[in-house]
Amino acid sequence: MPTLLPGSVDTAGQRATLGVLGGGQLGRMFVHAAQRLGYFTAVLEPDAKSPAGLVSHHHIQTAYDDLAGLAELARLCQAVTTEFENVPAQALQTLAQTRPVAPSAAVVGIAQNRIEEKAHFAACADVSGVTCAPYAVLETPADLQAVLDERADLLPGILKTARMGYDGKGQVRVKTTAELAAAWAELAGVACVLEKMLPLTAECSVLVARGWDGQVVSFAPQRNVHIDGILAVTHAYAGNMPSALAERARAAAVSIAQHLGYVGVLCVEFFVVEDGSEHGGLVVNEMAPRPHNSGHYTIDACDASQFDLQVHAMAGLPLPQPRQHSPAIMLNLLGDVWFGADGQRQEPDWLGVLRLPGTHLHLYGKEQARPGRKMGHLTITGPDVASVKTVARRAAELLGLPGLDSI
Ligand code: ATP
Ligand code: MG
């Protein structure tokens, strides 16, 4: 991959342009980071009013697998990335015939399928030092029967569709063999994994960026609080989790990225479980082949954000080791914030929130607020952890956010 210099113009007068498949909020923040460095941007996204399409120089409004749309993206851009792991891997493959694509279709394909993803985690467990939760693959009625007969140890468990799950969608919690059989039938017998329900004491994630040349940098692990399967709060500061555990998670994520030959930004999610040891055991949950919601705090609390590193990695620029300059807490803003206790639509108290010190409001430009829909996030930074927590609690109260007791 030749380096694509920021702000450059080629002999035909074409501006250095970076492309992204998908127009959601991750694409929007990628576009912001790329434009800050002087790149032009192109977004391929069917939705006319998508968060990223609204702010990009070019918006190609076609389906992700539309060949004419993909050809236009390749014509406009010198390198392409994705912001959405459910973009068809075939689309990335098509683009890769003529343009550098990072991450590659092959690794996105692995991350898109929980069965392949878990096989990858198992394949590098010796190097990464972590395994995933006990699980079984359900692809055929015979697989179901075998699990019903022989894997009572996986119950209570979570049945997860192998493909297209996010924010807890495509998941059913099952306690008994009867519930398992009913849940799989309800999911129309699509390929699934049944995962044992683990007693989690915490969850964390690690962001890694790796360049074409194999250079790797990473952020310290952030601790995440999920409510109803959706990320609610991210704690990003020294002491957010025991340091031995944090070091293990960071090293494991780096080795998982290296083992994949990954190029771009990768997020690896972990569970911390009670296992009788002093700090608990670390279990790898899943990975996202892109920047991640739990890394949004890096925009306001670090000298290089996860989106800056995504731009650097795909353009072949040096990857700076990011440094966090402020402790931070990130609060997700779901559509629920736009509705009062009576169910009536309301404008959230932004003025009250913005009056508080160290609040950084990010709204993604989505028109329709719906319960559970990610509309924006609020990052709170400050001089020390205690003051960040005080402001975060106050902001959560003003906005009526859940998860107050976790701050
Ligand atoms: P996303 O892509 O938004 O991270 P997802 O829909 O892919 O989420 P998972 O990360 O698999 O789903 O699960 C969502 C949440 O459900 C986890 O963060 C965790 O809180 C809980 N969960 C998932 N699997 C288990 C498990 N085996 N034991 C206990 N809790 C679990
Ligand atoms: Mg997850």
From TrEMBL:
Record-annotated ATP-grasp domain positions: 122-315
MF term (GO), any: 5-(carboxyamino)imidazole ribonucleotide synthase activity
SUPFAM superfamilies: Glutathione synthetase ATP-binding domain-like (SSF56059), PreATP-grasp domain (SSF52440), Rudiment single hybrid motif (SSF51246)
InterPro entries registered for this protein in UniProt: ATP-grasp (IPR011761), ATP-grasp_carboxylate-amine (IPR003135), ATP_grasp_subdomain_1 (IPR013815), PreATP-grasp_dom_sf (IPR016185), PurK (IPR005875), PurK_C (IPR040686), PurT/PurK_preATP-grasp (IPR054350), Rudment_hybrid_motif (IPR011054)
Catalytic activity entry: 5-amino-1-(5-phospho-beta-D-ribosyl)imidazole + hydrogencarbonate + ATP = 5-carboxyamino-1-(5-phospho-D-ribosyl)imidazole + ADP + phosphate + 2 H(+)
EC assignment: 6.3.4.18
Function of the molecule: Catalyzes the ATP-dependent conversion of 5-aminoimidazole ribonucleotide (AIR) and HCO(3)(-) to N5-carboxyaminoimidazole ribonucleotide (N5-CAIR).
Keywords recorded for this protein, A-Z: ATP-binding, Ligase, Nucleotide-binding, Purine biosynthesis
Recorded metabolic or biological pathway in which this protein acts: Purine metabolism; IMP biosynthesis via de novo pathway; 5-amino-1-(5-phospho-D-ribosyl)imidazole-4-carboxylate from 5-amino-1-(5-phospho-D-ribosyl)imidazole (N5-CAIR route): step 1/2
HAMAP family: PurK (MF_01928)
Top-level taxon: Bacteria
The protein, known as: N5-carboxyaminoimidazole ribonucleotide synthase
Residue numbers binding ATP: 114, 160, 165-171, 195-198, 203, 226, 285-286
Coiled coil: none
The protein's enzyme class: ligase
Subunit-level organization: Homodimer.
Record family assignment: Belongs to the PurK/PurT family.
